[in-house]
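This part of the workshop introduces the protein records we will be handling. To make this concrete, we reproduce a full record directly below:
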Amino acid sequence: MVDARREELRRYARRVGERWPLERVLAHRSGDAYLIVLVSAGFDGVPWLERVRQATSLWDGAEMGASAEVHCYTPVELERKLAQLPAVREAAEHGTDVPVAGA
């Protein structure tokens, strides 16, 4: 991954981290879009669509040169989704772990 893209992924993780304490961020580019998986216990109690809406609004597609499909899970939800969703499993197995501030 190009260093500029890596740095923008880190900036994105920081922006999201200002709202929720992130435990893990995975990024996997497939074609002309990224799959971003955000993991935070802070998502507990927040409706899934609201999490996704807020996290997606922080993505800078112009800077990244691609759109993003953002998934927001608690650690428990992530374990289920790894078994249920091939795209999430692919991101976990072959994607980039983006450094999370404070982790």
